[in-house]
Amino acid sequence: MDTALTTLFLGTTRGAVFALVAMGLVLVWRGAGIVNFAQMGQAMFSTYIASSLIISGHGYWFAFATALIAGALLGALVDVAVMRPLTKRSHSGILASESMRATVPVIASLGILGILQSLAGMLWAAEERGFPSPVSDVAVKAFGKTAPFTNFDLFIIIVVLLTLAATTLFFTKTGMGLAMRATALNPEVARLSGIRIGRVRTLSWAISGVASSLAGLLITPSANLSPNTLDLILIVGFTAAVVGGLESLPGSVVGGFILGLLIAVVNVYDAPDDVFLALLIFLLVVLIVKPGGLFGSKRVRNV
Amino acid sequence: MLEIRNLIASYGPVLAIRDISFTADAGKITTVIGANGAGKSTLLRVISGLEPATSGSITWQGHSLLNKTPEAIVRLGVAHVPEGHAVIASLTVAENIEMGALFRRRAHKQDVRVAISEMYALFPRLEERRNQLAGTLSGGERQMLAISRALVSRPSLLLLDEPSLGLAPLVVEQIIATIKQLCISTGLSVLLVEQNANTALAVADHGVLLSLGSVVADQPASLMRADSALRSAYLGY
């Protein structure tokens, strides 16, 4: 019973972080049609910034906020400095063909990942460092018993749920949220409606940057920080996004939690070595049974 | 007044518009007719900024529309309803309409609310379905929604591309009558592209006949309707 509860909490906490990563990927995929492999590189970078601030004596929350802002700026910068010029030159040279236009930005994102990782290595000497958690990460004790979770677990779950609620409200209740959905669904009609889709896309990159930086800040206390630590998180987050249908924000969140639980179960009841095997099998099964993902959009039929 | 001078434009690799010049008066319905591939849709897409022009000039009320983005052109009062009931299927009816007014929501908060309720008054069926997804609407309702999405931005010039496409004649008549009414009551100018020349000429003040990207006739709609030689040569009836 205790093992099952521990597994449940471990899975939910990790799942919450994967949900953030998957959400970041889906935001950019929907907004710009690009799978952003640099995403967790950006998150690693902003987490290093937070870590440096804490080491130089600043408080956790100041570092936390700075890292989120850095994540937003870095996301916007990737769009403005790299992706926009790439898509603008769509009628020349290598970008003239449809398939290359889809591929080149993805390769560019891999390039950005490489640059960020080497840059982090140069700036911060590539040493592994610990990263603090803002609340205790020792198991909670109450009524003389040890609970199967820590305060930090609760902190992660609350922060992620608040983030998800805020994102949902933003997308459904605000004009900018509507503009972002319209741009993702039909850029041409969005432009004809006067929506400045370039700015809206940059905002998608910025929000995605915040979500993934938040994921970085929440996962590193239990993983240590090095230029490559977040690579595996990206793989799990990407799997979660695909399981959720890649197009759907709620789908990506559910996908994140499912994978978190799956990984926890394999870790606890089987062996950590089998985690990636289990992930791949699960992904294959989902893609065979529901090729569009669990939350894949049913295409509306045109009569 | 919409003034188009020596316009040349390609649609992809195809030279779709070879030297078009005409003017469309403010407050009137001008229809652009012609067979498939005459360059009608490309013309509207160039005016609204979706496609670039190779050379020539387009001005609306003294503002040049060339080399501007669609986002900027809407702000000059030119709203485009592209071909094929262009609504966003997975947004609700209300969201589709609201989308058309988003760019005015800060500067004209009050008026946006008024404009939205005017759209529901214009097409009451949309009000009944305001919380439904646009994808669940019938073809006619979708066209009404596409037109509302454009009108809610309070345009001075409406570009309508084949509103009759795939719709029952009765529905087409109703939509066209609504547009005509709007021209008379608000002074809206309309550039109506139609393959169905009969319907278009019946409602329009002026007609421009295109063939293979060039203007072959430019005259009052009533004259064009009566010209049987023109009709049989270019419109096939």
| CATH class designation of chain B | Alpha Beta
Order of secondary-structure elements of chain B: EEEHEEHEHHHHEHEHEEHH
Give the termini distance of chain A in whole angstroms: 54 Å
What is the CATH topology classification name of chain A? Answer: ABC transporter involved in vitamin B12 uptake, BtuC
Indicate how many domains the architecture of chain B comprises: 1
Tally of discrete structural domains of chain A: 1
Average residue pLDDT of chain B: 91
What's the overall geometry of chain B?
Answer: globular
Number of strands of chain A: 2
Spatially, the strands of the biggest sheet of chain A line up as 1-2
Cα radius of gyration of chain A in angstroms? 20 Å
Helix content of chain A: over 70%
Give the percentage of residues in beta strands of chain B: 25-35%
Architecture (CATH level 2) name of chain B: 3-Layer(aba) Sandwich
Taking all Cα atoms into account, the compactness measure Rg of chain B is: 17 Å
GO molecular function (chain B): ATP binding; ATP hydrolysis activity; branched-chain amino acid transmembrane transporter activity
Keywords (chain B): Amino-acid transport, ATP-binding, Nucleotide-binding, Transport
Family (chain B): Belongs to the ABC transporter superfamily.
InterPro entries (chain B): AAA+_ATPase, ABC_transporter-like_ATP-bd, ABC_transporter-like_CS, BCAA_Transport_ATP-bd_LivF, P-loop_NTPase
